[in-house]
What does this fold into?
Amino acid sequence: MKPRQIALTTVTVTATVFAWSVVMVAADETAAVAALAPALALTVQQIVHTVRSRPATTLGAARLDASADKEDDAP
It folds into this structure.
């Protein structure tokens, strides 16, 4: 994925989580929001952490990975 697509996905998921929380509060389901808020917050945190910790792919690394797929000893 391109960095722009990743950022857009992250923003979309985060906005969806918060919108869901607002709808649940508006529907007077505060107990559901209170019970699920930690899980939703952890989901958003994991997405952001994954996006920020992606290693940059270099041309040399791509070339090394391609050579690792070839088997010279295969019958």
